[in-house]
Design goal:
It contains 4 helices and 5 strands, in the order βαβαβαββα. It has about 100 residues and is of the alpha/beta class. The model has no long low-confidence stretch (mean pLDDT about 95).
Length: about 100
């Protein structure tokens, strides 16, 4: 499974109403560390079908970035039951992602 592009339009359906944990990557195309995080996230998504993995482009989805207090990117946020329960800023290893999601 690959990452899902998350927008304001599909946030409720894909994140709030998800029946499994959601790992969101708040990123931007101009961000070097975000480009480093991408392949790690793709591998994590492939290895963990029980977790929904999404990407939020902060340039295109400023409303979502503001709503979740994104100050630095990449910021990874974990949602369970529609609520943000964990987050980390900066490039995270696959092991760190596993710990983050719990």
């Amino acid at each position: 499974m690959s990452e899902i592009v998350i927008t304001t339009a599909n946030f409720e359906a894909e994140v709030t109403n998800s029946d499994k944990p959601v790992l969101l990557d708040f990123w931007a195309s101009w961000c070097g560390p975000c480009r480093m995080q991408g392949p790690i996230l793709s591998e994590f998504a492939a290895a963990h079908p029980e977790v929904k993995v999404g990407k939020v482009n902060v340039d295109e989805e400023q409303e979502l970035a503001m709503a979740y207090g994104v100050m630095s990117i990449p910021m990874l946020a974990v949602f369970k039951g529609g609520k943000m329960v964990n987050q980390a800023v900066g490039v995270q290893s696959a092991e760190a992602l596993e710990a983050l999601v719990g």
